[in-house]
């Protein structure tokens, strides 16, 4: 399976199910790659998987794709220690890969089940940009007959917030679209803030669409709880100390990275929110405090 | 029940009466009389035991906290019991002794095991028995009574012993005292589930603890050796600030080695040298001290010969104990040294008895080599590799004091071609930053040097702070050179990221939230400074209201630390207990 096929498969997966997370699509693609791989050694297999992940990053430069790919690789490597025969090993890997995919497709529902109880009747919620996990949580809360209203930021430069507002209108939830700059203005009216995440880093902080950091700072100043909802495959082995420390390959869209010579002229599309501003994280591993994220990561990776 | 039947327990008197009764009464009555004697003896014994049991119960429940009234009440009761005892003594001194002896003989068998150890075989010396009975009545009372009353009781007991010694020959003093001290040691072990014992090095102002420490040192060297060749207790020096009076404060001018005889047969010369190097500050720094300690242990193992009828695994560990006590007195052990010693002891005790001596010794030497290589040298390499990702070009890095690990990281980053400059912060009285400055400049790294008082002035220029650590505590607090916590605080105020670099062998299970409860006090004379021929503070000892405090360590809370770099990876400060758990699972 060469690069174009890989990218094509990935795009097809994304098109097929727009509700699927990009990380899940990436993992599906890698699993397909594994099935079609004609390598002879485990080491060769790992190398080609790493290359495939890099290739997918070139298509969609989000943190989630990178973390999903790394987790898949990790999952696979743990298998390879047990069996001697390569073909037997590959079969086991494929089975485990399918199992892994099944598990993570359930993760969004698990998160929604945990989080909807924190939305009280009559609550006013502020959220940022378009997040499928947050949408799922709000769907569940609406299904539980809770009455709440939502403020969504417009989230430029791609105005993804409007997409979120459309989806919420379909659920008959009263929604208002606000300017990114009006977050401080509306914060005194809201009761809680819920955002999704593209990646959860080792310190317990998150990487998300640009504007999240501002929102977190304002909620801290107003003493409003700031909740993050994320699936566990988004946990990534990064440890940024500040905004500057986030690697450039995540900060800009893939095409920007390829075309622009001087990145300082380009606008970053993500920012880093430190763990001190986050109240709780809802994941399929449970409800975690930011300091517990490192604990979970050590269990996953070490 | 008291005095009258007591008299009748005397066997000679009993037999005399029996003679009389034989002449007068029938046999059944005589038998009944014997049973009555035994029964009353049993009642007497039961009364004693009940008292003791009551005392034990009381002691157990009151072990946690004694109010003043309860203490006074106990004191009164004891005095009462003593008065009763003394009355009995006066009535018939010989008779009362022997009565107590038979009472305690009957009591010896069912007595609780803790006390029976001190009561020797009944047929043997009767002396311990009378001593043990009164002390058994006193000792079950809670141990944490004020020492004043213990002294009182001891004085009274000693007076009685003198009186008995005058009437009876025999070795009463030593066994009696040992029985008494044995009794005192037994109740603490009973009470231990209730009270946790504090480590000795932070109870310096408690004279009982010091006495225990002295005894422990004696015990560790009693192996048929000349008592004059033992290691003395190092004395504290100068006035101690009251907040830290529970810690040792030694003078550098009075090293422990001056009081040792030459050649010292008790302590291995390599260990003596090491102790001197520690106390004079020649070997300083967490890693340097641990490595020096392990090298000294290697020398000890090389020179070790198993005595006949002894097993290497047990005897070598016992040999190491006095060395460790000696080193502890020269300079308190660091957390990293503690972990290294635990590892060495574990390896020694894991040597199987089948192993020949040469084989065992070479195995141990290899283990120590492995520990040094993996936990210190390779760990430093791994940490340097992780840290280089955090050092970018055009960075301004602030370091404090001289940490071997931080210096290593900066050297590696410089070799890899990163362009950065360093600000070295220094503080009195150790002025360790000068050593770091010298080493960095030698490599060609551009440096700035400031004292700690200028840290808030220089921080706006800084992009990152790299700190070393002496130990990482189980609750995420970082124990490091005094001044570190201050730098972390100011850096947090300026929003500058603080990175702590620490190997995992420095992680310790202790929990501390402040710098007072456990610390090290250095020589207060170091704070004196001589300028232009004049030494200020020269006569500080003569000023009664003046105290000099030379602290060595402080603890930094985890909120001020952004990242801890270990050889296992980069972890937040709150994940230290997770690493400890993972490590324990591995072992």
UniProtKB/TrEMBL annotation, chain A:
This is Translation initiation factor eIF2B subunit alpha. It comes from the Eukaryota. Belongs to the eIF-2B alpha/beta/delta subunits family. One of its GO terms (molecular function) is guanyl-nucleotide exchange factor activity. GO terms for cellular component: cytosol; eukaryotic translation initiation factor 2B complex. Keywords: Cytoplasm, Initiation factor, Protein biosynthesis. It is found in: Cytoplasm, Cytosol. Acts as a component of the translation initiation factor 2B (eIF2B) complex, which catalyzes the exchange of GDP for GTP on eukaryotic initiation factor 2 (eIF2) gamma subunit. Its guanine nucleotide exchange factor activity is repressed when bound to eIF2 complex phosphorylated on the alpha subunit, thereby limiting the amount of methionyl-initiator methionine tRNA available to the ribosome and consequently global translation is repressed. Pfam families: IF-2B (PF01008). Its main location: cytoplasm. InterPro entries: eIF2B_alpha/beta/delta, elF-2B_alpha_N, IF-2B-related, IF_2B-like_C, NagB/RpiA_transferase-like. Gene3D superfamilies: Translation initiation factor eif-2b, domain 2, Translation initiation factor eIF-2B, N-terminal domain. Component of the translation initiation factor 2B (eIF2B) complex which is a heterodecamer of two sets of five different subunits: alpha, beta, gamma, delta and epsilon. Subunits alpha, beta and delta comprise a regulatory subcomplex and subunits epsilon and gamma comprise a catalytic subcomplex. Within the complex, the hexameric regulatory complex resides at the center, with the two heterodimeric catalytic subcomplexes bound on opposite sides.
TrEMBL record, chain B:
It comes from the Eukaryota. GO terms for biological process: animal organ development; central nervous system development. It is found in: Cytoplasm, Cytosol. Its main location: cytoplasm. Residues 61-190 are annotated as: Disordered. Keywords: Cytoplasm, Initiation factor, Protein biosynthesis. The keyword Membrane does not apply. Pfam families: IF-2B (PF01008). Residues 132-142 have a biased composition (Low complexity). One of its GO terms (molecular function) is translation initiation factor activity. The keyword Metal-binding does not apply. GO terms for cellular component: cytosol; eukaryotic translation initiation factor 2B complex. Residues 61-72, 86-102, 145-174 have a biased composition (Basic and acidic residues). Residues 73-85 have a biased composition (Basic residues). Acts as a component of the translation initiation factor 2B (eIF2B) complex, which catalyzes the exchange of GDP for GTP on eukaryotic initiation factor 2 (eIF2) gamma subunit. Its guanine nucleotide exchange factor activity is repressed when bound to eIF2 complex phosphorylated on the alpha subunit, thereby limiting the amount of methionyl-initiator methionine tRNA available to the ribosome and consequently global translation is repressed. PANTHER family: TRANSLATION INITIATION FACTOR EIF-2B, TRANSLATION INITIATION FACTOR EIF-2B SUBUNIT DELTA. Component of the translation initiation factor 2B (eIF2B) complex which is a heterodecamer of two sets of five different subunits: alpha, beta, gamma, delta and epsilon. Subunits alpha, beta and delta comprise a regulatory subcomplex and subunits epsilon and gamma comprise a catalytic subcomplex. Within the complex, the hexameric regulatory complex resides at the center, with the two heterodimeric catalytic subcomplexes bound on opposite sides. Belongs to the eIF-2B alpha/beta/delta subunits family. This is Translation initiation factor eIF2B subunit delta. It comes from Nothobranchius furzeri. The gene is EIF2B4.
């Amino acid at each position: 399976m060469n690069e174009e096929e890989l990218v094509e498969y990935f795009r097809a997966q994304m098109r097929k199910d727009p509700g699927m997370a990009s990380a899940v699509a990436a993992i599906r693609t890698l699993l397909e790659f594994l099935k079609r791989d004609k390598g002879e050694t485990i080491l060769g297999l790992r190398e080609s998987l790493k290359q495939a992940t890099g290739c997918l990053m070139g298509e969609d430069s989000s943190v989630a794709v990178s973390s999903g790919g790394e987790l898949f690789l990790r999952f696979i490597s743990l298998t390879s220690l047990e069996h001697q025969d390569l073909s037997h090993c590959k079969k086991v890997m494929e089975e485990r890969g399918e199992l892994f995919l099944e598990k993570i497709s359930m993760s969004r529902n698990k998160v929604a089940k945990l989080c909807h109880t924190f939305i009280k009747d009559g609550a006013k919620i502020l959220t940022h940009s378009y997040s499928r996990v947050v949408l799922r949580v709000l769907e569940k809360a609406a299904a539980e007959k809770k009455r709440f209203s939502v403020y969504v930021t417009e989230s430029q430069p791609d105005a993804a917030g409007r997409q979120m507002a459309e989806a919420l209108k379909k659920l008959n939830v009263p929604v208002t679209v606000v300017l990114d700059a009006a977050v401080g203005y509306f914060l005194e009216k809201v009761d809680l803030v819920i955002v999704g995440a593209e990646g959860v880093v080792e310190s317990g902080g998150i990487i998300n669409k640009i504007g999240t950091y501002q929102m977190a700072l304002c909620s801290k100043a107003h003493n409003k709880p700031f909740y993050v909802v994320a699936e566990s495959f988004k946990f990534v082995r990064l440890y940024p100390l500040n905004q500057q420390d986030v690697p450039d390959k995540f900060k800009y869209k893939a095409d920007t990275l390829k075309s622009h010579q001087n990145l300082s002229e380009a606008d970053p599309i993500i920012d880093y929110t430190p763990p001190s501003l986050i109240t709780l994280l809802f994941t399929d591993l449970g409800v975690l405090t930011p300091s517990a994220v490192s604990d979970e990561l050590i269990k996953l990776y070490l | 029940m008291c005095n009258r039947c007591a008299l009748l327990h005397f066997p000679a008197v009993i037999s005399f009466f029996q003679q009389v009764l034989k002449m007068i009464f029938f046999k059944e009555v005589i038998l009944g009389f014997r049973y009555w004697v035994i029964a009353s003896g049993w009642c007497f014994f039961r009364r004693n035991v009940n008292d003791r049991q009551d005392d034990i119960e009381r002691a157990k429940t009151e072990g946690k906290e004694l109010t003043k009234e309860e203490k006074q009440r106990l004191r009164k009761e004891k005095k009462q019991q003593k008065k009763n005892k003394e009355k009995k003594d006066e009535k018939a001194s010989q008779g009362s002794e022997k009565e107590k002896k038979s009472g305690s003989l009957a009591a010896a068998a069912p007595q609780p095991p803790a006390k029976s150890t001190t009561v020797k075989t009944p047929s043997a010396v009767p002396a311990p028995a009378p001593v043990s009975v009164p002390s058994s009545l006193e000792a079950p009372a809670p141990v944490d009574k004020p020492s004043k009353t213990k002294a009182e009781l001891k004085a009274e007991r000693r007076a009685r012993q003198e009186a008995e010694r005058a009437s009876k020959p025999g070795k009463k003093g030593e066994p009696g005292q040992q029985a008494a001290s044995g009794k005192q040691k037994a109740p603490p072990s009973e009470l231990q589930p209730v009270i946790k014992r504090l480590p000795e090095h932070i109870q310096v102002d408690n004279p009982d603890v010091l006495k225990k420490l002295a005894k422990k040192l004696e015990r560790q060297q009693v192996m048929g050796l000349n008592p004059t060749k033992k290691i003395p207790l190092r004395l504290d020096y100068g006035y101690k600030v009251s907040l830290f009076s529970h810690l040792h404060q030694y003078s550098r001018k009075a090293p422990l080695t001056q009081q040792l005889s030459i050649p010292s047969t008790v302590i291995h010369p390599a260990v003596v040298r090491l102790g001197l190097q520690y106390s004079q500050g020649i070997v300083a720094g967490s890693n340097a001290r641990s490595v020096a300690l392990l090298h000294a242990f290697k020398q000890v193992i090389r020179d070790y010969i198993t005595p006949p009828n002894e097993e290497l695994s047990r005897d070598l560990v016992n040999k190491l104990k006095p060395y460790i006590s000696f080193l502890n007195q020269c300079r308190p052990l660091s957390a990293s040294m503690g972990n290294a010693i635990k590892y060495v002891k574990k390896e020694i005790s894991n040597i199987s008895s089948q192993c020949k001596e040469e084989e065992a010794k070479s195995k141990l030497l290899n283990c120590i080599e492995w520990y040094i290589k993996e936990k210190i040298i390779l760990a430093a390499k791994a940490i340097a590799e992780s840290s280089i990702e955090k050092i970018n070009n055009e960075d301004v890095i602030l370091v404090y004091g001289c940490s071997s690990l931080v210096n290593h990281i900066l050297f590696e980053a410089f070799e890899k071609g990163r362009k950065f400059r360093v600000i070295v912060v220094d503080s009195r009285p150790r002025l360790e930053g000068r050593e770091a400055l010298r080493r960095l400049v030698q490599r060609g790294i551009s440096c700035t040097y400031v004292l700690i008082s200028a840290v808030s002035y220089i921080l706006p220029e800084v992009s990152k702070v790299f700190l070393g650590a002496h130990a990482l505590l189980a609750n995420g607090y970082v124990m490091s050179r005094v001044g570190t916590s201050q730098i972390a605080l100011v850096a947090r105020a300026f929003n500058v990221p603080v990175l702590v670099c620490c190997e995992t062998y420095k992680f310790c299970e202790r929990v501390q939230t402040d710098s007072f409860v456990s610390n090290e006090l250095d020589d207060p004379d170091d704070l004196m400074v001589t300028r232009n021929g004049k030494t200020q503070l020269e006569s500080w000892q003569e000023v009664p209201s003046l105290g000099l405090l030379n602290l060595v360590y402080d603890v930094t809370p985890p909120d001020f630390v952004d990242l801890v770099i270990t050889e296992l990876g980069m972890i937040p400060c709150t994940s230290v207990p997770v690493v400890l758990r993972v490590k324990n699972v591995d072992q």
